[in-house]
Amino acid sequence: MVENIEDHIESTPDLVVANASCLNEEIGWFASVVNDRLAAYAPAPPDREPDENRFLGKLFSNNHQPSNGSEPSWTVEPIPVPDLSQSKSVYAEFVRHYNMTADERLILMLTILPHIQPQLLDVFFTTNPQLKRGYSEFGGIKGHQHGGFMPTVETALFITSGQDVVKRFRMMQTFEPTHFFFAHNILFINHIHTSEPSNSAALCMTEEFLDLFTTGKFRSPPFSMEFPAKRLMTKMTWDDLVLGKQTTKQLDEIRIWLQHGKTLLYDWGMENKLKPGYKALFYGPPGTGKTLTATLLGKTFHLDVYRIDLSMVISKYIGETEKNLEKVFKRAENKNWILFFDEADALFAKRTSISDSHDKYANQEIAYLLQRLEDYPSLAVLATNMRHNIDEAILERIQSIIHFPKPEPSERLKLWQSTFSKSVVLDEAINLEQIARQYELVGRSIVSVVQFASLMALNRNTNIILLEDVMNGIRKEYLKEGRTM
């Protein structure tokens, strides 16, 4: 497996300028190759001067026959590709990282152009004078809102292979799912009409890599039905999270993996023996720090953390849950994101004995989730209140099962002491040690009590926290949990 390209990119103030300069050079080379391809396919009249800077605006064709009446020739002399060895751009780093061939670079540029210089592809709209319509061999479609030419796999095959059938067959391997273009979610093929030839499907670049080649950074995908996950961020630190010694010790294994996992797989040659990624289960009552822990792991190692919104993923319709979850996994591949599945038992619950068709498809759904989770190459965290609700097959494939119990009195005291603002003064009647010992509250509840008591103080135009306000806040939390003081 190839490591993430983003790991090899250094962000500099001049990166956008370097990206633009490199892409302009690559576009010029791409234009020359396409001009030669079109000229060989349908030569221009003798009085037509070659134009190295733009595509031919018109095809001069007579049933695809050269003007001298001889057999057509599809041979195109190769045009040297630009030397990007000294370029500091993201695109150049990408080309070097994957050791890309000239044909792969042509395909990549074809997918970039609709976003940065769409007018350069308008030449493919040329009408076939014999049939009074476009050339089917050029491929392409017209978008719903985009007025320019949208390339298809057929367009890429024409540019790279022309009418050379042998090369066409070889180039078709480029569009297999195993090619890094698709395995690493750089390009995708938008299959809409399955009854039509597969090569007529639109060939597109993912938004993430378009951003990478232009701005030099992956853009966080917006929360939507197409990406049902929200990014988790926090201003808190590990000092704000009070956990038991056993929980902290177990978390150290995840920290070590985040720091040394790639070395273990690639430098030590273990990628053929170990499954990629790391899977952990956090279980325990609500408010004990499971979500904050996942967020702090991301913050510590500069990784984006996304919480999957299961309300938008789970569907009562057969096959829809898998499709919704696949949208997340597909976007997350090779981004090194931490995926956080809160209330994971909604997805990974124990399988049932098959009594009807619904049970059958539910078990198939679990099998899909199991395989997809196992193949995820980064950290995935499942969180649940009840460990025994999770399917045993999932538990067998998880490296760490970490319990987040309710805090002990000593831990609750640390939470009380660290949560109050340094700007407040606690009334002498408040004995935090006694409160911590007497009232069993989780971290989230303690934060709520502190917020309530602090607001009451502000409402009195003072910074003094009264015992009465603290006790009223505790009473509110107990009532929320159905308990009495």
UniProtKB/TrEMBL annotation:
Annotated keywords: ATP-binding, Nucleotide-binding
Taxonomy, superkingdom: Bacteria
Database matches in Pfam families: AAA (PF00004)
GO MF annotation list: ATP binding; ATP hydrolysis activity
Domain AAA+ ATPase: 276-408
InterPro entries referenced in this protein's UniProt entry, alphabetically: 26S_Proteasome_ATPase, AAA+_ATPase, ATPase_AAA_core, P-loop_NTPase
Family: Belongs to the AAA ATPase family.
Annotated protein name in UniProt: ATPase family protein associated with various cellular activities (AAA)
Lineage of producing organism: Bacteria, Pseudomonadati, Bacteroidota, Cytophagia, Cytophagales
